[in-house]
Amino acid sequence: MSTGTAEKLRTIFLVEDNKADVRLVEEALKRSTIPNQVLSVRNGMDAIAFLRQEGEYTDAPHPDLILLDLNLPKKDGREVLAEIKADPQLRRIPVVILTTSKNEEDICHSYDLHVNCYITKSRNLSQLFQIVKGIEEFWLSTVTLPVN
């Protein structure tokens, strides 16, 4: 049943220092049937400033989903995840770790910090597109997200 209202634009916040990976994720999400905007930063300090709407990010939108790499400059993804999940204003935003690390310690530590899911990036382009498509379908279509 249609209500006649447009589907809500979903904001995906990508925290990734690798320019090529940013481009690939953005390209994969352009093919989405779900209206979205991808906003990205390249280090952990900027990620926290963005999420808390500080400094140059005072007008930053509240994201619907965070895609977070672990190995970041200035403040790594583990620290960013810990700050997000410790902050009552941010902790409900789903965080997906999207990283190349298959290290069991990284996986366990991320779940100990209450990550919503941990996904290892593929270096194969078509597999990466499949991964991003799966993230999009599950987190932006299937799951009921909290209202910002």
From TrEMBL:
Pfam families: Response_reg (PF00072)
Modified residues (4-aspartylphosphate): 69
Keyword Phosphoprotein appears in the UniProt entry: yes
Single GO BP term: phosphorelay signal transduction system
CDD domains cross-referenced by the UniProt entry: REC_Rcp-like
InterPro entries the record matches: CheY-like_superfamily, Sig_transdc_resp-reg_receiver, TCS_response_regulator
Keywords for the protein's UniProt record, in alphabetical order: Phosphoprotein
Residue ranges of every copy of the Response regulatory domain listed in the record: 11-136
Name listed for the protein in its UniProt record: Response regulator
Source organism per UniProt: Chroococcidiopsis cubana SAG 39.79
High-level lineage: Bacteria, Bacillati, Cyanobacteriota, Cyanophyceae, Chroococcidiopsidales
